[in-house]
Amino acid sequence: MTIGTALDLHAMTHALDISHRPAPQPARQDLIGLDREEIAAKLIDLGLEARDVRMRSKQLWNWLYVNGASDFERMSNVSKPARALFAEHFALSRPEIVTEQVSIDGTRKWLFRFTDPEHPNMPPVDVETVYIPEADRGTLCISSQVGCTLTCTFCHTGTQKLVRNLSAGEILSQILMARERLGDFPGGSRPTDGLVPAGGTRAITNVVLMGMGEPLYNYENVKKAMLIASDGDGISLSKRRITLSTSGVVPFIEPTGREMGVSLAISLHAVNDELRNELVPINKKWPLKELLEACRTYPGLNNARRITFEYVMLKGINDSDADARELVRLLAKIPAKINLIPFNPWPGSPHECSDWARIEQFADIVNRAGYASPVRTPRGRDIFAACGQLKSESERLSRKERDALEAAAG
Ligand code: SAH
Ligand code: SF4
Fold first, then answer.
1. Which residues are annotated as catalytic?
2. pTM attached to this predicted model
């Protein structure tokens, strides 16, 4: 470990006072993560008239996603009796903030703790979400699973077994929480301890599904959350500014383009099957040929809307000139961007990052083939917020432990 340890002292970690947050109420239906139709159906269940259902679901949607309301009391245009009825039956859960860290480069990392409303007796899970401010944009990197079923050799998350999939509400809540903390909702204020872009623009302009987990192994929940996040009457994030990164779950690539319409990133990392089988083991199931074919036919792909190919620079493994030339050759017929990621080390990681001169030489070959600024600057390494460094302490329980907890709960 190099940079991480050296800079640790400068990073700020503070536990937040979360005592004002009500404990989760599992008996009440959580509205966060339900789509408009589902919210309307819940209102019908409460006995509202059709006309009121339309009006109230519109109001609720606006309060939840435009205003970021986390309690019904704030909903000033909803009558008092309706607010009381909603508060009795519905919840607007937010996770607990376990820590919030700010890197010396302004990157912020939150550890959020979620309780599973369907299994309130199960231990809560911890999820990492990262915010990366830049001069012209602010990118939120969100997680889709706790842990991962896959075991890519260079990835810290890959050493944490899959604990569980996150629900649509939990995926969306990461965006809501970050917007709240960064002052992105009306009336909010920007924190002054980071490099959050100032001015009238939103702090969060882009969202990447590049945190913990493989989003295409939690397809339905990710899809639902992204459709809500891009809804024009709500959070209203542009679909072009949402990027889903996959290690290559080929059967879900076409549906991602057709049903979600978000931008796609592929964790390529190797240019031949032999090496990719080793580094990204899902390649044994869907090898390069199938993966690249799915990319070529990704819905909505054109020169203005390219696929990003991520390539982690591993010393002596995948960083030769021949690798660079093969990379360019492989992607020749696909509208592509190439993103070279300096390997971010983590405790016990089996790889080293390529030397800077090597990365530059590799980037030069890629550059000469017409790909602009291909190297991704590592951000937030001092707080372990960089690509592939995320891993929470949450552990998967054995079947026996789960059964015992369920039984104790009756
Ligand atoms: N599971 C998805 C998304 C999460 S990983 C996927 O694999 O695409 C987000 C990106 O970070 C991927 O490209 C991943 O390969 C890369 N990554 C993982 N570990 C890394 C590390 N230690 N250093 C640099 N990049 C890493
Ligand atoms: Fe899972 Fe992605 Fe990490 Fe691979 S790189 S182990 S798919 S999170």
1. 128, 387
2. 0.90
